Amino acid sequence: MSEVLTPPRVAAQDAAPIIELRGVAKRFADRLDVAAKLARRLGVRVRQDVVHAVDGVDLAIRRGEVVGLVGESGCGKSTLGRMVAGIMPPSDGAVLWRGRDLRSLSGAEAREAKLRTQMIFQDPYASLNPRLRVQDIVGEAPRVHGLVGRGEVEGYVDGQLRRAGLDPALKRRYPHQFSGGQRQRIGIARALAVQPDFLVCDEAVAALDVSIQAQILNLFMKLRRELDLTYLFISHDLGVVEHLSDRVVIMYLGRVVEEASAEAVFRRPNHPYTRALLAEVPRIEVRKRAFAGVKGEIPSPLNPPGGCHFHPRCPHAFARCRLERPVLREVAPGHRSACHLNEAT
Ligand SMILES: Nc1ncnc2c1ncn2[C@@H]1O[C@H](COP(=O)(O)OP(=O)(O)OP(=O)(O)O)[C@@H](O)[C@H]1O
């Protein structure tokens, strides 16, 4: 990846949380395969297991912060992101938007919360209506929500496209006429058009070529400076969040296992899982020698291991790890880790 411009770190510690999760959990009934669906339709009782996608997460994101959320595929990152964005309700716990429980907001307040928080997805093509021209994709929501008058939409859309690095002369084209990187810029322009202050980016660069990834990451950081945005940046790749995050949160099988400033996570990782993930960041040669990569497959969230979920893959696991869930504890100021090793010494 070519150079990603590192943003100036914002002193976000004192700012009020823009969003807060308190003891948030999400359970799903497991998806049925075709045979099970058919059997159910024929009146046969089909056992449906429960997926523990997110399991008791506390997280506060402060105004102006960029928080990187990292973990392997299936660990619950997207589900957490959707709950943060208010588009999926938790099974347990509460999501607070500017200090207020999302469930307690009036209709108008809930609409405002939804507009202020926008999600950017991995596959911009799937999230762009192929039958609409770019000008309508970007202009529709601000017009519907009364953010811009009918006569001003065109100039407004031009401004959003320019801000996202696209030539407004292309606005009459359809999504399929653009490259992957340009389509992601259209998705970003569409999100910006409703004037959000918080972006949840879910694997927003994962589908792009490496050189394009850096351009889009730089765009996110430029927008951060220009618009004072707050970000939750979800990625399976620690290397992607390294340059842009103030704080990094590591998730494993539905739980947060470590949370600290980006600097602390990269220089002084505490949790064995974080260390194993760091070993897989190709550019970090020294760490590659210091820690072994993560071994084996992530267990199924249908039947997560007891105690510390990571214990079957952890080279340091001892008896207590199999029995007791470790809680997140401060191991240094602002640095929390959920590992029994921190108490064993
Ligand atoms: N609507 C759903 N119904 C049933 N199970 C679901 C649903 N959504 C997610 N899951 C399951 O919840 C778990 C967490 O999924 P999630 O997509 O949040 O993980 P992730 O870390 O974002 O992974 P990926 O990067 O692969 O999307 C997975 O086992 C997934 O199969």
UniProtKB/TrEMBL annotation:
GO MF term list: ATP binding
Domain named ABC transporter: residues: 39-278
Transport in keyword set: yes
Record keywords, A-Z: ATP-binding, Nucleotide-binding, Transport
Record CDD domains: ABC_NikE_OppD_transporters
Membrane topology: Peripheral membrane protein
Origin superkingdom: Bacteria
InterPro entries, A to Z: AAA+_ATPase, ABC_transp_ATP-bind, ABC_transporter-like_ATP-bd, ABC_transporter-like_CS, Oligopep_ABC_C, P-loop_NTPase
Localization per record: Cell inner membrane
Family indicated by similarity: Belongs to the ABC transporter superfamily.
NCBIfam families per the UniProt record, alphabetical: oligo_HPY
Annotated protein name in UniProt: ABC transporter ATP-binding protein
